[in-house]
Amino acid sequence: MALTGIQIFKLLPKTNCKECGVPTCLAFAMNLASGKAELDSCPYVSDEAREKLAEASAPPIRPVVIGKGVRKATIGGETVQYRHEKTFYNPTLMAALVGSDISSDELATKLKGWNALQYERVGLNLRPELVAVKDVGGDAAAFAAVAKQVAETSEFNVILMTEDEAVMKAGIEAAGFKRPLMYAATEANLEAFGQLAKDNDLPLAVKADSVEALVPLTEKLAGMGLKDLVIDPGSREVKQSKDDMIAIRRAALKDGNRAVGYPTITFPCEMASNLDVETLIAAMFIAKYGSIVVLSDFRGESLFPLLLERLNIFTDPQRPMTVTEGIYEIGKPDENSPVLVTTNFALTYFIVSGEVEGSKVPAWLMIKDSEGLSVLTAWAAGKFAGDDVGMFIKKSGIMDKVKHKELIIPGYAASIVGDIEEELPGWKIIVGPREAAHLPAFLREKYS
Fold it and tell me: Which domains does the chain have, with CATH numbers?
């Protein structure tokens, strides 16, 4: 059971040093008890106290690392029921299903196609992470061969899906170096699978027939020293599965029930007869607490909207979505191409870059850090001032890419022309349109 604020306070050094960011140790203890602070913020807590406080300082839903390599990811670690309360931390992982009876050539074709499904968005690479290898027919050699091919020939991490101990051992031997998720321990094989997970230091999924039936299974595994668990309440009817996801999150966060305080795995591929419906169900689970979503296939028209939904939901609502400051090429600009500047608010970037691209005029788009504010708001807040913009242009390296000295600024920031000219002597500052929709005509008229 989690400790109260007063119980935590008794274990703290009581120096009131303020180095944790709050005025007193009592205030820090209260924040720690409510999940609003991390124990590592206290530089003077003793090792003995740290051990006792581990439970109180741990997130109510345990973070679990899946896989290794570039697509290694953490699931769980959440602290709130609703995103607007704070933020969601670790995005839902996307998995596609293959059977152990798939041919090597067909699997190679699938992996190549799936790996190509990567999308650039606000400076991030959006892509799926997992391939779930499902045991078909209990053939351990075939299962191991497919798991090995996925692990060795692709960037994808692996879910090993079988309830047969011998088949699971073969899969671990073939793909264990990729730290796969074992799926799944049940009441029937609990001890054997628990020991396998412990011996190989692997995360283990636990499956039962209901949320209530999960509790004794996870408690027994925890008693064996296993911490990296993923839970599946077993429901495959859409409404019941959604209700189970909500019940698990609520029990972990509101009731402090550590027995269900683990990330979850869901199977839209077992709840629908076609990928379109699977996609709708997956979208629900991304919003409602599915830590891993398993689909029957990855296709661009299905995966892309799910990845965008995931990006939006797991973006901190208290901070605007931003683009990294820097120089962006639109088309294939050269030394004579126009140079435009705007703020790093993601929506502004997408609108402006889209209109510039639509103009068919290659250009250099300069993105200035404005703390995620739009042009007019950033200008009003002093985050898009003329001297700052001029200094940014000077230090950005754009002068090495173009031989002209012309800079196009947004029409809403026309008042900063003089300050930019002072910072960039010899440059001609051109006031562009107020609305991005007018950029294509503006650019074609001046540069075509």
Answer: 5-57 (1.10.15.40), 64-313 (3.20.20.20), 326-447 (3.40.50.11600)
